[in-house]
Amino acid sequence: xxxxxxxxxxxxxxxxxxxxxxxxxxxxxxxxxxxxxxxxxxxxxxxxxxxxxxxxxxxxxxxxxxxxxxxxxxxxxxxxxxxxxxxxxxxxxxxxxxxxxxxxxxxxxxxxxxxxxxxxxxxxxxxxxxxxxxxxxxxxxxxxxxxxxxxxxxxxxxxxxxxxxxxxxxxxxxxxxxxxxxxxxxxxxxxxxxxxxxxxxxxxxxxxxxxxxxxxxxxxxxxxxxxxxxxxxxxxxxxxxxxxxxxxxxxxxxxxxxxxxxxxxxxxxxxxxxxxxxxxxxxxxxxxxxxxxxxxxxxxxxxxxxxxxxxxxxxxxxxxxxxxxxxxxxxxxxxxxxxxxxxxxxxxxxxxxxxxxxxxxxxxxxxxxxxxxxxxxxxxxxxxxxxxxxxxxxxxxxxxxxxxxxxxxxxxxxxxxxxxxxxxxxxx
Length: 428
Prior knowledge:
This protein is α/β, with parallel strands linked by helices. Among the domains are: 1-146, NAD(P)-binding Rossmann-like Domain (Rossmann fold), CATH 3.40.50.720; 312-425, no CATH class. 53% of the residues lie in helices and 11% in strands. It is built from 18 helices and 13 strands. The strands form four sheets. The chain has a seven-stranded parallel sheet, sandwiched between helices. A two-stranded parallel sheet has the order 7-10. It is globular, with a radius of gyration of 26 Å. The two termini are 27 Å apart.
């Protein structure tokens, strides 16, 4: 089959794409940044779509030529600048589904969520539910899959956060009492469901909730993940919701898995009927702990879990370093600045202009890090700037290398911090 897959560069989408390719299907990844797909092995030819803007059927009709089935796996937990949750979850999928109807692409699989119910009282649930409801009105061979928490060998978003919380030194923090419920479904069981639906074509116009066979609390998830990572048991610490709410609001502003939407969806629950899932597909989903035992944690899993909270700390420390350097440079009294420039052989207007320019560059770098603007480019700019400062000052004033306060030697760990953040900053 020729399958158009939206969201192919996401956590779940990449596993679905891999399963489709392994089964012999021809996949057309429809993504916002095709370069992220073009570098994969294998690398199916991706097409560029923007679900923030492609909100009318005409945007999709040309992309459906030669397509036999469509799988919509695009999604975001919460809207932010440049990402409209209403467009990504509702307007664009509706346009895609209507285009399928017009183009005669009958098989449509919508990846939703078991918690996509209006009662959850979030934009995430409301927009997902709206797209699900619209698809259910169309004369197509549609299937709506609403999985619970999807876990795999890799981790992203909520699953990455859970691993990080489970790996903290000595403690395991809980959101409230940690009694929020999931029915974790392994990604292999979800992809097996999708392959079955494409292969037999018998299940039409149904809503299926792929869920695991048991209900697992957040407390149990974290305890099990800590043991899976090979760490000694930690003390369970209940964090009151009143303390978590401010952190969630910061997540609303700056992004991240801890947000008001995540908390509301967590409280609403992520459970369904495993009997109904098996009856609809014939698949016996694996148990949560059985899947963990079958895929033991490796060193990279521990590194990822332990570095999860280190990354924002690195970013914050570099932001403060560049911000402080820029502000101090701009506010430096001329009486103090001129002797320093004279010592470096940069007296006069040229030296003062350079000092002003370097301060502005420092502030610009701080802003780029704050906005997470092109992490790769930001890393190279920082490296070049710090190396330039170090080599330039080292040549102009060699005595700085032996200064007891180590103003140049301190640049060495800063360079290492820049390289570390550059390695960690890309989520995909």
